[in-house]
């Protein structure tokens, strides 16, 4: 499990009162919120007075507790789900939500010795940095995803409006006190925007769960028993490679041995596209909902191997945080993505059996599936 105390950049002697801002907090599903809650608890144990501000799909709440030498106040604002249907709707939701978060904790922000905000929800930088004269504490930006770069990368044609927004975002970035990035690829991207390297710290997420020696995998769904099982877990969104996986999986079942079964314990646009295509092509697969954090170790120990994907144009803008828990599980890994991504760096140095497939090379992915099935047959291992 991640050692958050060792990674904390905050000084207890000078920055006792901290405010952390994220989006969806547990029990809502969201990797950023899960990591920030862990971070907040660790900082409280260290002696800080921490306020964690985020969103809830249920109801608004405020809970204060004493943890270790410090305290933690969790403030959840009730919010509707992000409207995924249109870009305009998402931007309107984001602006409204950012304003609610900033002004919902305005007094605490003014009193804080340090403020840590994330890339989720997007564009908080456009509200926090202009108001910087009101904050006495250091402003630290933990870039989880780059915005608006992710919006730009998702578009087929360049947008003058988004380019103007990017220029304004870079203007504000150069006025943030310090940054945390999730990987070396993100560090390179951030330095390219003009941010001084001296203000950037590499602070990896790490696995949010641990795998004790006696940790057993969950039982496999009935239709996966007897097959080589490849699991994709978590969010399968716009940044994740779909076409290479879909076409490579098709080749594996139509031209290869078809021994691998893909298990999608996932949500997101990529999941829906794979389900649509596999159903239309009558390819075998299994789909289930993402599991809560406490059930994650059992899920990740259930399959023979894990699948992680990332489109080339999102490298350095997005870091799939699931990679840490997947590697910690000890299961082999197939990565569909670029060697420039920190996913490849982490996997190559992890010690687990690892295959990387380039985006746009379905034959290479189909070959990796065959090699995975061969290795499982040779080892005689059983999933679950």
From TrEMBL:
User: InterPro entries given for it?
Assistant: Glyco_trans_4-like_N (IPR028098)
Q: Any stretches that span the bilayer, and where are they?
A: none
Pfam families, per the entry = Glyco_trans_4_4
Statement: the UniProt record of this protein carries the keyword Oxidoreductase: no
One GO molecular-function entry: glycosyltransferase activity
Kindly give the SUPFAM superfamilies that the UniProt entry links to this protein: UDP-Glycosyltransferase/glycogen phosphorylase
What are the Glycosyltransferase subfamily 4-like N-terminal domain coordinates in residue numbering?
30-204
Query: Per UniProt, which keywords does this protein have?
Result: Transferase
Ion transport as a keyword? no
**Gene3D superfamilies (alphabetical):** Glycogen Phosphorylase B
Q: What is this protein called?
A: Glycosyl transferase 4-like domain-containing protein
């Amino acid at each position: 499990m991640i050692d958050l105390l060792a990674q904390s950049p905050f000084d207890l002697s000078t920055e006792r009162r901290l405010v952390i801002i994220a989006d969806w907090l547990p029990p809502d599903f969201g990797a950023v919120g899960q990591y920030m809650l862990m971070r907040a608890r660790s900082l409280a144990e260290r002696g800080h007075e921490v306020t964690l501000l985020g969103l809830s799909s249920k109801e608004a709440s405020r809970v204060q507790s004493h943890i270790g030498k410090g305290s933690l106040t969790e403030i959840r604002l009730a919010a509707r789900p992000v409207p995924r249907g249109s870009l305009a709707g998402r931007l309107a939701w984001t602006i409204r939500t950012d304003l609610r978060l900033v002004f919902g904790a305005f007094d605490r922000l003014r009193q804080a010795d340090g403020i840590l905000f994330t890339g989720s929800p997007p564009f908080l930088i456009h509200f926090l940095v202009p108001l910087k004269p009101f904050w006495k504490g250091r402003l630290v930006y933990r870039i989880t995803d780059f915005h608006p770069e992710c919006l730009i990368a998702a578009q087929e044609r360049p947008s003058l409006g988004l380019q103007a927004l990017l220029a304004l975002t870079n203007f504000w970035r150069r006025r943030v006190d310090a940054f945390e990035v999730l990987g070396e690829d993100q560090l390179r991207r951030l330095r390219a925007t003009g941010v001084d390297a001296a203000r950037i710290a590499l602070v990896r997420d790490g696995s949010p769960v641990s795998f004790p020696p006696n940790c057993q995998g969950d039982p496999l769904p009935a239709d996966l028993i007897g097959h080589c099982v490849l699991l994709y877990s978590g969010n399968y969104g716009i940044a994740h490679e779909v076409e290479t996986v879909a076409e490579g999986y098709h080749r594996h079942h139509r031209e290869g041995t078809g021994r691998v079964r893909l298990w999608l314990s996932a949500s997101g646009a990529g999941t829906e596209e794979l389900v649509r295509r596999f159903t239309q092509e009558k390819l075998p697969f299994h789909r289930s909902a993402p599991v809560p954090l406490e059930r994650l170790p059992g899920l990740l120990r259930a399959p023979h191997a894990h699948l992680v994907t990332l489109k080339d144009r999102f490298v350095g803008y997005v870091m799939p945080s699931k990679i840490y828990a997947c590697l910690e599980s000890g299961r082999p890994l197939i990565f569909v993505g670029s060697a420039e991504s920190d996913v490849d760096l982490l996997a190559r140095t992890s010690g687990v059996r690892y295959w990387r497939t380039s985006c746009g090379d379905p034959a290479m992915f189909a070959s990796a599936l065959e090699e995975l099935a061969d290795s499982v047959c040779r080892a005689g291992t059983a999933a679950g």
